[in-house]
C-alpha cells in the first residue's frame, strides 16, 4: 500500500467513525497497520472505534500504542482520558489522574482554556479520591494561570474560597504542607474580598481564625489575624474570645493576655473565655476563692478548655478542696482527648496534679488511683518530684517497702531536693519514729521553707513526740503558726492550734477561734465543729454555738452531720423546747440508728413533750442496744408506771435492783408501786 493509499484508508476510517460505522473503521485501520505498523493516527482511530464498540481493553491498548509512538501528541491522550472518564471501574482513577497531568503539560504552552478545563477535572478527581493536598496543589496552579491572564478580583476571590473548601475537608489528617496551603488560601481570600467590612467577609475571617486555632505552631499568624479582625470589626467579640482561649491554652499570662481578658469582659460580661481569664488572673493574685468561683462559672459556658479545668483544679488545691480538684483534673483530661505535641505537656501536668490531689484525700482507694494517674505520665521515672509523689501514694496505700525504696533512691540521687527529705519524713512519721521524722522535716524546710505542709508535719511530730515538745512554745506551736501563716486555708493546722490553746495553754477563747476557723475551712471536720460548739457553750456564748449548728444542719443532706443534730437536739432539750429536740434527735438517729445514747436522749425529749408511748419505745430501744444503760431501763419502767402498766413497771424495777441493789430511783419506783 502506497502513501497515497494509506492516506485514503485513514480518510475512510475517519468518515466511518463520523458515520458511527465503527467496525468499518477498524477494517480500514487494520489495513493501514499491515503496511505501516507505526502509524499514529491508525492506532488512535482504533482506540476511538473500539471504545464505541465497548471494547475498552482493545481501546486502551491502541491508545497506549499511539502514545508510545508519539508521547507528546494530544489525540491519544485525549482519547485515553475520554475512555477512562466513561469507565465504571474504580481502579482507573489513578491512571486518569496521570493522563490529566500529561494533558496539562501539553496544553500549558497553547490552549489556556482547555488547560483550565482539564485542571478542573483533575481537581474534582483528586477531591473524590480524598487526595486533598494534590487537589489543592492543582487548584493553586489554576489560580496562578488565571492570575497570569489578569483575572478579575472577584473571580480570584471565588477561586481562593474554592481552594479553602477543598482543603477544609481534610482537617483531621493534615500535614504541614496542607496546612500551609490552607492558611495561604485563607489569607488571599480575606484580602481579595470586595466588600469590607461586610457579613461574608466577617464570616470568612471567623473561619480563618478558627482554622489557625487548630494549628499549634501558627500562634503568630493567629494573633495577627485576631488583631486584624478586631481592627475591622471592633464590636465583634469572636476574635477576642479566640485570642483569650489561645492565651489560656498556651499558659501565657502576659500583660497582653490580661489586657485581652479585661477587654473581652468589657465587651461581653457573660463571655466564657473572659470569665475564665479573670479567674486565672485571680489565681495569679492568690485570690483563690474568687478564682474558683470565676473559673467554675466560665467553664459552664466554655467547657472544652483543658487548660481552664487545670487552672480550676490548681485553685481548688490551694483551698484544699481536693475531691473537687480530682474531678476538675478528670474533666481536663476528657477535654484534652488524645493529646499530641504541646498538649502532651498539659496532659502530664494534669495527671501529676490529679495524683497530688488524690494523695491529699489520704485513703487507700485514692492512693491506688493516684498510682494509676502517675503511670500515664510520659517520662515520669526521670522526674524526681513525680517519684516523690509516687512514694507518698505507696505510703498511703500501706506499701511501705516500695515507699521506702523510692525514698532511699531519691536521697542518694537528689539529696538537695526538699521532696526527697519530706518523703522520708512522712515515712518516719507514719511509723511514729518522731526523732528521725523531725530531722527529715527540718532538712526539707531548709531546702523549701515556704511549704506549709512541711511546717505542719514538723509541728505534728513535736505534738506526738513527747509532752515536753507538745507544751514547748518553740516546738509544736511555732510550727503550727508558721504553717497557718504560709497557708491560711490549711484547716487541719487550725484544728491543732485549737488543741494547743485548749489543752496546753488553757485559753478557751483563742482555742474556740481556731476551731471555728478550721471548721469554716473544712465543713467535714467534725472534730473542729464539735469543739467550736462545746467551747462556745462553756464560754456562755450560745448564740455562736447555735449559729454554727444552724449553718451545718441547713446545708446537710439526710443521714449526715449527726454531731450537729445531736448537739442542737440536746440544747433544745436543756432549754425546754422538746418538739424541736425530738426533730433534731430523730435526724441524728437517721445518721446513726445504733447510737444508744441518742435514743435515750430522744426518750427524754418525748417524755418532756408528753408523748409517753414514743418515749417508752425510745428508752426500750436504747436499753436493747446497750443493756448497761440502767438509766434507760429505769426510765422505761417509769413511763410504764405513768401509762398504768404497773406489773411491767414492777418487773423492770426489780430487774434493775437485781443488777444494782442500791439504784435509788428504782427502789423508789418499786416502793411506790407496792
UniProtKB/TrEMBL annotation:
A Pfam family of this chain: TPR_6
TPR repeats: 40-73, 562-595, 596-629
Keywords annotated in UniProt: Coiled coil, Repeat, TPR repeat
Coiled-coil annotated spans: 3-39
Entries under PROSITE patterns matching the protein: TPR (PS50005), TPR_REGION (PS50293)
GO cellular-component term (any): Ski complex
Gene: Ttc37
The keyword Cytoplasm is annotated on this UniProt entry: no
Matches recorded under PANTHER family: SUPERKILLER 3 PROTEIN-RELATED, SUPERKILLER COMPLEX PROTEIN 3
Protein name, UniProt field: TTC37 protein
